[in-house]
Amino acid sequence: QEHEKTLAMPNGELRVSGKGKKLRKPRTIYSSLQLQALNQRFQQTQYLALPERAELAAQLGLTQTQVKIWFQNKRSKYKKIMKQG
Q: Measuring CA to CA, which of 8, 55, 62, 68 is 20 to 30 A from 34?
């Protein structure tokens, strides 16, 4: 019987050694306060520089990856809405 070990990857993915199957991290649920701050920041700028991202993540108690992905998703949604008119 193979002993499986779960490793936390730097990108936030959880990987099971041996079989190489990816176990996805549960979806992040943002608090209304976090969403308010993220949306407010997005209205100011659609792109964050690394130090800005680090600062925002620290302020909101999120990881930099969570902030980065939220902004990516938001830009994608925004462009989709703009395309529709």
A: 8
